[in-house]
Design goal:
2 domains; single chain; 281 residues; two-stranded antiparallel sheet; mainly alpha
Length: 281
């Protein structure tokens, strides 16, 4: 969304995911100790994380990116990397360097599907991801706000002349993206059972890889790229030992994300579904 409107790769997005996970965890621990039902604790913690990340996304756009909107493209890119580092260090100061365990608040019953083991939490994660993506597509393609976003992405100057408040639309895009990042942070930390101040770095790189694979700036392409990247990593982790004679194990699964990135950039830089970028007046 951000790249489609601004042509900016927001490298700080992974750190917003991390902040969402840690903010949810900070709210989760006292709530869990109070004796509230697990699902209710998870929902309240998610709401806290979403509010924190929405405020953070708005502040980042207003302070770090808006003053550089008309600057050469290298300046916002370097700023995004700087914001990422600042958020990491702030999280380390607030929550420390240690790994934090996430309470198991949701059911973890396992089921066998076509020979694969899947638990109830993973089913919930897939359902939430599908519903969220459907809602986002409906927002972008079926609402007045979505039309304003698409108009801003097509040509910000012309959209402004037609009555669209470009600054407001860009700020709302960052806010919505940050809310989704908070949701992702909560789901990722719940799935793996841990949260850490450095967890957003690799997530951000993989998100960027998925976006490039599907077509950066293309919402449907990002979803397709994420699914394909997950399948490639899962299959690679399962068979890398056989391919290398046991030299490499499943802990090298992150290598596949960057291998896919290199291959896509060489053979199809626009991605599988094409790239969408904003026009500049």
């Amino acid at each position: 969304m951000v790249y489609g409107i601004l042509g900016l790769i927001n490298f700080a997005h992974g750190e917003i995911v991390m902040i969402g996970a840690l903010a949810a965890l900070a709210a989760m621990k006292p709530l869990a100790a109070s004796g509230l039902p697990g699902p209710l604790v998870a929902l309240i913690a998610l709401a806290v994380a979403v509010l924190v990340c929405m405020a953070l996304g708005f502040a980042i756009e207003r302070v770090a990116y808006r003053p550089l909107r008309n600057a050469p493209r290298l300046a916002p890119l370097i700023t995004a990397i700087g914001v990422s580092i600042v958020l990491q260090q702030l999280a380390m100061l607030i929550w420390g360097r240690n790994y934090h365990s996430v309470p198991a608040l949701l059911p973890a019953d396992s089921y066998e599907v076509f020979g694969a083991q899947i638990n109830a939490l993973q089913v919930i994660i897939m359902a939430v991801a599908a519903l969220t993506m459907t809602g986002l597509l409906l927002l972008v393609h079926r609402t007045r706000l979505g039309r304003a976003m698409r108009a801003t992405a097509e040509n910000p100057a012309i959209a402004g002349l037609m009555g669209v408040d470009v600054n407001r639309i860009i700020a709302l895009t960052f806010v919505i993206g940050s809310a989704l990042a908070a949701l992702a942070g909560v789901l990722v930390s719940a799935n793996y059972g841990i949260a850490h101040y450095h967890m957003g770095f690799i997530l951000g790189l993989k998100a960027f890889t998925a976006a490039v694979l599907g077509g950066i700036g293309n919402l449907g392409g990002a979803m397709l790229g994420g699914v394909l990247l997950g399948l490639i990593e899962a299959l690679g982790a399962g068979y890398i030992g056989d391919f290398t004679g046991g030299v490499l194990g499943s802990n090298y699964q992150d290598v596949f994300a960057f291998f896919v990135l290199i291959v896509v950039l060489i053979f199809r830089p626009s991605g599988l579904m094409g790239e969408k970028v904003a026009e500049r007046a």
